[in-house]
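Dear Dr. L.,

I hope this message finds you well. Following up on our conversation about the binding site, I have prepared a predicted three-dimensional model of the protein together with adenosine-3'-5'-diphosphate. For your records, I am including the exact sequence and ligand specification that went into the calculation, followed by the structure tokens. Please feel free to forward this to your student if that is useful.
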Amino acid sequence: MDFQDEKVKTMDMTALQKLVPIHGVPMGIEIAENWESVEQFQARSDDLLIATYPKAGTTWASEIVDMIYSDGDLEKCRRDAIYNRVPYLEFKIPGMPSGVEQLNGTPSPRLVKTHLPIQLMPDSFWEKNSKVIYVARNAKDVAVSYFFFHKIVKALPDPGPWNTFLENYMNGNVGYGSWHDHVKGWWEKRHGDNILYLFYEDMKEDPKRELRKMLHFMNKEMSDETLEKIIYHTSFDVMKTNDMANYKTLPNDLVDQSTTPFMRKGIAGDWKNHFTIAQNERFDEDYKRKMKGTELHFRTEI
Ligand code: A3P
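The resulting structure of the complex is given below.
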């Protein structure tokens, strides 16, 4: 897909910034209006899905998986921007092919990106037993990353000041709804053979260990040398300078990276630079209530 500057310039971004509930989950208005085609999407048994709550490391996992599919061949991975190599299932903006349309035209085996909470997943993924890699990231770093993302993506609602955004995020009043429900929903489903549940913090701590989990899950073998190559090329510093992975190919009118780059910090624990003590206490208290009864455990630093 080619995002043409001229086309994007004529788009009414304010009209796109509205959130509309789909089965109770707030979603961008264009996604909501295109919902039927997402619901009816035909998955294939050899699809591999990368599912995340936004800002949990989707692009990182996508780049890794595409490199695995390409057996570490860098040239192959430079063939196109990440949003074309791993199309975004529910993506929809006016005048552009939707994610569904893009995927329908993609030969197998397809890599598919989604941020959908588990209850909104099209049935065909379960019917076809497609594999899913879910990446979860701690709620506080996601909050900060999502805040900055709202500032640079023109089709997202204005986040307002940090405190306002944080309240909205805690209340699930942002695109894709509650972080808590999202990570818990997918966690409860993880026991099937076809879901691999990973954590961003584990990937930061020991990318080789986590990459091996992915390989095992994908029934792939790889030499240690290729594995090291993939780890290097998917490290934050290298991906930051790779225009096929850092979204710099998108027009500024859609994603304006002049103040904050998409590849912003890429660490665990940046939330400490943004949460006040009071915000942190309030967040922890609310978190405890919402995550009660789950054994799902996150690390907010490593
Ligand atoms: P920060 O904003 O905290 O830096 P997503 O791809 O789901 O939108 O997630 C984006 C977040 O993942 C951003 O977080 C981005 O910097 C981080 N990220 C992207 N590539 C990464 C990599 N190779 N290693 C670590 N973090 C990465």
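In brief: Strands lie at 19-22, 25-28, 48-52, 111-114, 131-136, 195-199.

With kind regards,
A. P.
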